[in-house]
What we know:
By secondary structure, this protein is an alpha+beta fold. It has two domains: 6-32 and 79-241, no CATH class; 251-556, Beta Barrel (Outer membrane phospholipase (ompla), Chain C), CATH 2.40.230. The protein has twelve helices and 16 strands. Strands 4-5-7-8-9-10-11-12-13-14-15-16 form a twelve-stranded antiparallel β-barrel. The chain has a two-stranded parallel ribbon with strand order 2-3. A hairpin with a 5-residue loop joins strand 8 and strand 9. Helix 6 crosses helix 7 (162-180). The chain starts with 5 loop residues before the first helix and ends with a strand.
Amino acid sequence: MRIVWTQPALAVVYLATCVVAAPPAAAWANAVQEPSPAIVTQTPSVVSTAPRSLLADVTFDVPDAAQSEAKGPSVLQPRRRHVGRGMLEMGAFLTYSATNYWRKYASFIEDWQFKLNWRDQRRKFFTSEGLRLDSNNFRLNWTHGAAGALYYSFGRTNGVGTLGSFLFSASGSLLWEYGAEWREISSINDHIYTAIGGVAIGESLFQIGNYFRNRSGASNRLAMVATNPLVALNDLLDGKNRPPRAPIDTWHDFRLSAGVVRGAVLPDRATLSQGVLVLDLQLVTLPEYGKNGIGSGRARSTMDSAFHLDARAIGGQIEEFHISTRATLFGRWWKNVQRDAHGLPHGHDLWVGAQVAWDVLQKRPIVSYDGHDLGMKDQWFVRERPTQYTDKVSSVHFPGPTVSLTTYTGRLRTRLDLGAALNFSTVNSLPFNLYSATHDTWGVKTTLQNWGYYYALGTTLTGRAEAEMGVWRATAGVDYRRFGSIQGLDRFQDHVTDDSRLRDSRFESSASLTVRIPRSTVFSCVRVEHVDRRGWFHATAAHAHETRVSYEIGVRF
């Protein structure tokens, strides 16, 4: 019992340390605080129509009190920094999580590899034995991104900038992996999903939640709580000192739609009708985007954010779901937008920045052993031959270059987004089912044998084009990824007898046409999607493809 309560005690010590460290931590936060895009204004030269040669290189800055009063309620006041409060909130959450973890410790006995003595803890902290890729199922891995987003939000919603909030998510991961789970290896995959995935999810939801926060009405309050409840919590804790709600003229495109999709539930299977629900939230927080002006500058805070969710179901049972987030954290921008005699815009907005992203896609398992079992007893489990794993992938996309160009030609508005990144992924091995039909799979990577996926490094290339004129809107997009397995870092590497390399690729393309009912926010949409999957393991190669067509009715808000 004394050992069971070791981690809660550690968390209490951490809480006490937060209280003591709050003053110096506040000084540290001042150094890393970034101006929030919601409190950013541009200098008059940016929206000037003077010749480009007269414009200085413009940067964003936070307005002082005098400027804020002069500009009126359209400028949002920054939230005061409460670094100590953010640490206390994270400490309380870690305490709860650790208590819950130890209460259910019997479910994780397979993970226990280190005892509470110097010999074992030295191996964990100071040798490669303690830092490995874990052998947990797919769901337990990608959900660490959600935990990281929560850690990140403890800082971000308390007035800390993106860099400081990243330190919240990274330190939260370290505390959990080396404190709460002192019996287990420190999982490389958990650190990456929590620290980097936490930024990708947390920053996009912070920006979207902040958007709803600054709008009036009960529906916006509910949307704020749904997208980022910590914004609402810290507003409550701030009381009368909370920043006023002042809507900022920010470009956004929020859409919710539902309909029917025709396509195969599994690759190369019969075509079926499925219900589909799509939520797409896009937000540009670069000031003056789409407005008149000529200028250029550096953006030191988030310029662009997005959240996407779609789910397909048959008879109330989800057959496939996909969630993705992205945030362009900083970059450089150029604009040249002017109005003609009819008041129509002509010109362009352009930015180049660093974008971080995260996503997960999973098809419904068709066998019980594909992810439902925790499997905390053995290193490998006996599986049927051939196995029947369904497709799944989750990726953390490290900060990579992105380019966005928006052009205006009267009533026609177009936007092109291009991006590239390195990714860390957990990806289903497409050829493994086929390979297992004729080969003994005992001794392969533990996650491959037990859950059908493996850890991989790879590259991501994305492109998206959009054209809008009046009530019509057309989009097209591509997403191409290559995956190569990570070798030599399995939790039970000493027992792996077949550590052969695996490779997979995934190419997704889509196109849609939307028409909106004039003078309303209601629209209808037809969408076509195609997925091409390929994979290689030993001499076994596999290829699968899916094509789906959906018809949706939705609302823009």
